Amino acid sequence: MASDVRLDPVDLAILRELQNDARTTNKELAAAVGIAPSTCLDRVARLRSTGVILGTALRVDASALGRPLQALLFIRVQPHRGVLEPFVKHALEQPETRAVFHLTGADDFMVHVAAAGASDLQRLVLDQFTARPEVALVHTTLIFQQWEGGPLLPPTTSS
Amino acid sequence: MASDVRLDPVDLAILRELQNDARTTNKELAAAVGIAPSTCLDRVARLRSTGVILGTALRVDASALGRPLQALLFIRVQPHRGVLEPFVKHALEQPETRAVFHLTGADDFMVHVAAAGASDLQRLVLDQFTARPEVALVHTTLIFQQWEGGPLLPPTTSS
DNA sequence: GGTGAAATTTAGTCGGC
DNA sequence: GCCGACTAAATTTCACC
Predict the structure, then answer these.
(1) Where do the HTH asnC-type domain residues begin and end (chains A, B) (predicted)?
(2) Distances (CA, A) of A103 to A143, B66, B73, B134
């Protein structure tokens, strides 16, 4: 549903604009990319239906919500198929979990969490991860600061 | 600007709704949380002005945009103040970069990237990171799959 | 701080090019 | 595929509680 979609320069301009601010009105968006509002509406609808645009997410301040301590948990699980799905499910059920990554390498998973403080993080790691039977090892790293990259756009091909 | 903001149950309901779908109309949102549309507009505006809501981001499919290979780069830099800012700036300037994290522990930074393929990733790591003088070591891990967590909400306090 | 109705802006539809 | 006029629905303002 989302592979090899043809994106012309106008589509790319739309994606760039909306990634800066997904609340941009269709009218402004059309003016910014140089097409009529009705055409712009079609373009965005197509980008949605083809799966290029997956949705719009609210960016919230974790500190303002009382979760100022963010960390990465690197986790090794027992090498059996069938433990992966329950593990991921359990990780996603924790309110502190922001994202889960299944990785190559020595550590099987990385879980990005936002905790209320050191004691909350300690409880999360020990009770919700280390204590689980399929979890072999948890290594915790704190996040000092983080930055978001610019708009995600296709690689520039010289074809 | 964003610390110790008082959030009542209505605010939390608004945040939960909008994190599910940031395009929810104000009318629907008001109905969902049980207040008048105009009141709801005030609430959301306050959440924005107080910095709880930082913005709305478009979620795009990296594969659909021709960047199907995502990876984490763990990077150690020379232990001198003054190298951090230029390094972060350079990392964020790469079109493949999705996010940059400054970490505790042996590795100073983790850079989340989305590449067009193995050769693009190789070029990125070698030419844009390993080649830089302040970079001491780069360790690359591929991402098999990733999941997003649920809505980020304040910890439930029993006060 | 919350509300309901009015005024304004926007999204979304449709026939024609 | 793109445009421009039209309809429907939304946002936003405001006087009042």
Answers:
(1) 7-68
(2) 19, 20, 12, 27
What's the CA–C1' distance between B59 and D5, in Å? 33
Taking only the tens place, the pLDDT of each residue in A66-94 is: 999 999 999 999 999 899 999 999 999 99
Into how many domains does chain A fold?
2
Q: pTM here?
A: 0.96
From residue B118, alpha-carbon distances to A102, B67, B142 in Å are: 18, 10, 10
Same structural domain for residues B73 and B101? yes
Mean pLDDT, chain A, integer: 95
Is the domain of A80 the same as that of A126?
Answer: yes
What are the residues with a C-beta under 7 Å from any atom of nucleic chain D?
A 8, 10, 35-39, 42-43, 46; B 25-29, 37-38, 41
Contact B18 A58 (CB under 8 A): yes
Please, where are the H alpha helices in chain A? Answer: 9-20, 26-33, 37-49, 84-93, 118-123
Structural Rg of chain B based on CA atoms: 20
- Weakly modelled stretches of chain A, pLDDT under 50: none
Search chain A and give the residue with CA nearest B65: A154
The tens digit of pLDDT for each residue in B102-116 reads: 999 999 999 999 999
CATH number assigned to the domain comprising residue A23: 1.10.10.10
